[in-house]
Each structure stands twice: as structure tokens, then as C-alpha cells.
From TrEMBL:
Protein's UniProt keywords contain Signal: yes
Pfam family, one: Fibrinogen_C
Region named Disordered: 244-264
GO biological process, one term: positive regulation of heterotypic cell-cell adhesion
Keyword Cytoplasm included in the entry's annotation: no
Native organism: Zoarces viviparus
Signal peptide: 1-22
All copies of domain Fibrinogen C-terminal, residue ranges: 267-487
Keywords: Disulfide bond, Glycoprotein, Secreted, Signal
The protein's name: Fibrinogen C-terminal domain-containing protein
Major subcellular site: secreted
Subcellular location: Secreted
Length: 487
């Protein structure tokens, strides 16, 4: 009887254990079994994960024998407990393995989650970058479209300007042709007017007509053209050419040297030199005023040395450029020289003669028309004879692009308004209003009247002309006579 009771107790215990298999004490409290209450055993050591149980026997009315006994069969109780423990341990081990497996899975899942997070973050960054690049591309496209529009506008403008230029060039050519024709007509009419005037005077005055020199008949094929030509050249001549202190009909009395103008250019303390070529050889490369002294004279000469043309070393004998100086002067003036060394001037026949005696010189004549074009006439040799020979001109052979209008003056003496040495029956200086080596009278008049604008109208050909370049009625804008020793 007692053994049966222990067996029932053991069974009850086993079944209870199976039912509440390691549930927590909370779950145990929630269990509202009418017959079994499992109380919490507190405190439970968290490290001790083994379950421990307290079996409470339900209160019931004991009607039979009580199986609890302190002196019960110990061997049966020990055997059951070991089995249980073995089972429990086996189950526990199994669960631990499952837990470990689950833990591994959880770890792997955690890594995957982290990787997923990283990937998501990366994806967001990539999206942001793609958006940024797209915006940049959009801006670039817009910019290129704007550029292409601007380019198209510029091309249109270039086309318009080119078209306008072509139209203007065409118009300019038309005007140049018309001007050339009109200039020819003016030239011819001047000759005709002069002839008619002569005929008229001859008829009225019954032959008591002053003899006038023949006009230069050269009408060049290509007149230098400029846009400032008007029919008011004569007025301009009267008002402007001699507006700076001299009258055309009364030669200036003060010769160069007596009342010299204040120098406005550079004047080196170096020197004196025999000529500008020696100045150049001394190392001076700046064009300007230098002191010269020729071998034949003790007199110092202020002269303009041109070092900017053809390697320099040119001594300037004469210069015209703005009409600021009257060149209609007497013999004494032409002998001594006059004008401003840094502007219009005449170096003086005496000085030119003394310079030429020092060696073999060549002559360069530089002419500039009213379009700014410059042409040159060079003569292979140049010197003057003495005053007793009327400063007779001695020229070599011509070369250049201005045409040779000076060789016809070769061998002629110098003529001024008060000393007639020319080949004409009258005085060429009176008609040409200058001093020159006149023939009868000549193909060039570089000491004539400075007319503004080029083509001029005058009773006589008294402008600064060079027949081969512009004709007798085209007054040049500037002219220079220069000498340098022959190379
Ligand atoms: Ca004469």
C-alpha cells in the first residue's frame, strides 16, 4: 500500500513537471489550476538557469492513508529523480542547441540588417548624387543653348557688318572714280582758264601782257585722293596757309640765325658733328636737333637729324608739313636759312653748299600726299656749286617710286624773288611763290605755297607740287629733302 502511494506521487510529480515544464514563476502564478499552485521561489539566481520546483499537494480531505513518510523507500525516489534530471538535461541541451542555432540565425540576420541599412544609405546617397548630376546636366544644356544663340547672333552681326563694309567699299570706289574724273576736269579747266585769261588780257591790253611761265601739263592717271577736298582751297590758302605770322606778298626780313625761334626738339650737348651721319655713327639713334659744324666754316649749324628712316644718319635740308612758315622769301633768307628746325624750315644754301663739299652725298626726297601715303625720290649724288655760281644744282641719277620730277632742274642756279637766275624770261619765283632751282619754270616746286587739302585752284602753279606725283595742281601735304654720305 505504501509502495503504491509513492508510485502515484511520482506519477503526479512527473505529469505536473511535464505540464509546467520550466515555465517562469509568473506563468505559474497565472495558472489557475484548481488543484495545483506553484509558488515563486524568490529570489532566483539569474545565473542558475536550472528550474527548481516546489510541489504542493492540493488540499484535500485525506480519507486514506498518507503516503508521505520520512522513512519511505529512498531507493525508488532517487531513481526517478535521476531519470528526470537526465531527461531534463537532454531537453535543456536540445533547447540550448536550438537557442544557439537561433542565436546564430539572429546574428546573421543582424548582419544582414546592418548591410541592408548600409545599402539603403548608399542608395540614398547615390540617388542624391544622380539628382545633382542631372541638375548639372540640365544647366549645362541650358547654357549651351544660350551660347549657341549668342553665337548665332554674333554671326548675324558679322554678316551684317561685312555686308555694310562691302556696300561702303563699293560706294567708296564709286566716289573715288568720280573724284578722279572731277579732279582731271578741274586740272584741265585751270589750264583752260589760264589760257582764256591770257587771251582776254591780250585782247583788252593789246598785247601788254606780263609773260607767264608754261603750266605743268601733267595730269596723273591716279591722283592722290583725300576726303577733305573742297572748292574752298583758295580761301583756305588765304586764311590758313599764312595765318601764323607772315604775309605771302611781303617776304620775311628776318633770316634764320638772326632771330632764331626757341628750339622745341631735343638738342644734345654732344658735338658738334660734321653731319648727321657722324651723329648716327657716334651712337645717337633718336631723331632730333643736333649741332653740326662743317669743315668749311666755323659757324655752328642747328640741324634736324633723321634717324628713323633707312638706318638714319640723314641731315634734313628742308621740311614742309603744315604751312606754318612762309617760304616766299628773298635771296638772303634762302642763303642763311629760316624756319623752325623742329618744324618747317630751310637749312640755308650756304650750309647746304658747305655740307656737300665734305664728301659724296646722296639726296632723298620724301613726299606725303593727303591720304597719308609717302613716296620717295632718291638721287645717287647731290651737291651745290658756290654762291658765285648761284648755288647751281648737281644731281645724280634718279631712283624711287615718286617719279623723276627733279632731273629737269639739274644744272640750274637758285632763283628767288629778288635774284632771277632761271631759264624763263620772267622770274619763276614770282609765279611759283618760292625759291628754287627753277628752269622755265619746272616740274617741281617744293618751296611753294602750302595748300590744305591737295588739289588747289590758283592762277599759277604755286603749290608744293611734284609733277610726276599729283600734277601741278596738287599740293602735297608734306615734303622733306635729306642728304647722307653715299654708302
Ligand atoms: Ca628768268
Amino acid at each position: 500500500m505504501q509502495g503504491l502511494t509513492w508510485s502515484l506521487c511520482a506519477l503526479l510529480c512527473l505529469s505536473l513537471w511535464e505540464e509546467s515544464h520550466c515555465r517562469s514563476s509568473r506563468d505559474a502564478r497565472r495558472t489557475k489550476g484548481p488543484s495545483l499552485i506553484r509558488s515563486k521561489r524568490a529570489p532566483i539566481d539569474p545565473d542558475d538557469k536550472r528550474c527548481s520546483y516546489t510541489f504542493l499537494v492540493p488540499q484535500q480531505k485525506i480519507t486514506g492513508p498518507i503516503c508521505a513518510s520520512t522513512t519511505g523507500p529512498e531507493p525508488d525516489k532517487d531513481r526517478v529523480t535521476r531519470m528526470d534530471i537526465a531527461d531534463v538535461r537532454e531537453v535543456l541541451n536540445k533547447q540550448r542547441r536550438e537557442i544557439e542555432t537561433l542565436q546564430l540565425v539572429v546574428d546573421v540576420d543582424g548582419n544582414l540588417v546592418n548591410e541592408m541599412k548600409l545599402l539603403r544609405k548608399e542608395s540614398r546617397n547615390m540617388n542624391s548624387r544622380v539628382t545633382q548630376l542631372y541638375m548639372q546636366l540640365l544647366h549645362e544644356i541650358i547654357r549651351k543653348r544660350d551660347n549657341s544663340l549668342e553665337l548665332a547672333q554674333l554671326e548675324n552681326r558679322v554678316l551684317n557688318v561685312t555686308s555694310e563694309m562691302m556696300r561702303l567699299a563699293s560706294r567708296y570706289r564709286e566716289l573715288a572714280a568720280r573724284f578722279s574724273t572731277m579732279a582731271g576736269v578741274v586740272n584741265n579747266q585751270s589750264v583752260l582758264i589760264a589760257a582764256l585769261e591770257e587771251q582776254c588780257l591780250r585782247t583788252v591790253g593789246r598785247g601788254e601782257l606780263p609773260i607767264v611761265p608754261p603750266l605743268v601739263q601733267v595730269v596723273p592717271q591716279h591722283l592722290p585722293v583725300n576726303n577733305r577736298f573742297t572748292n574752298e582751297i583758295q580761301r583756305d590758302h588765304n586764311n590758313r596757309a599764312f595765318a601764323r605770322g607772315s604775309r605771302m606778298d611781303s617776304p620775311t626780313a628776318s633770316p634764320f640765325g638772326i632771330n632764331p625761334p626757341p628750339p622745341q626738339g631735343t638738342l644734345t650737348a654732344d658735338g658738334p658733328f660734321k653731319d648727321c651721319y657722324q651723329v648716327r655713327q657716334a651712337g645717337h639713334t633718336t631723331s632730333g636737333m643736333y649741332l653740326l659744324k662743317t669743315n668749311a666754316s666755323e659757324r655752328l649749324i642747328q640741324a634736324w637729324c633723321e634717324h628713323g628712316l633707312d638706318n638714319g644718319g640723314w641731315t634734313v635740308l628742308q621740311r614742309r608739313r603744315d604751312g606754318s612758315v612762309n617760304f616766299f622769301r628773298n635771296w638772303e633768307n634762302y642763303k642763311k636759312g629760316f624756319g623752325n628746325i623742329d618744324g618747317e624750315h630751310w637749312l640755308g644754301l650756304d650750309n647746304i653748299y658747305n655740307l656737300g663739299k665734305q664728301g659724296d652725298y646722296k639726296l632723298m626726297i620724301e613726299l606725303e600726299d593727303w591720304t597719308g601715303k609717302k613716296v620717295y625720290a632718291e638721287y645717287s649724288s647731290f651737291h651745290l656749286e658756290s654762291e658765285s655760281e648761284g648755288y647751281r644744282l648737281r644731281l645724280g641719277t634718279y631712283q624711287g617710286n615718286a617719279g623723276d620730277s627733279f632731273s629737269s632742274h639739274n644744272g640750274k642756279q637758285f632763283t628767288t624773288l629778288d635774284r632771277d637766275k632761271d631759264a624763263f624770261s620772267g622770274n619763276c619765283a614770282h609765279f611759283h611763290k618760292g625759291g628754287w632751282w627753277y628752269n622755265a619754270c619746272g616740274q617741281t616746286n617744293l618751296n611753294g605755297v602750302w595748300y590744305s587739302g591737295g588739289v588747289y585752284r590758283s592762277k599759277f602753279q604755286d603749290g608744293i607740287f611734284w609733277a610726276e606725283y599729283g600734277g601741278g595742281f596738287y599740293s602735297l601735304k608734306s615734303a622733306r629733302l635729306m642728304i647722307r654720305p653715299i654708302d
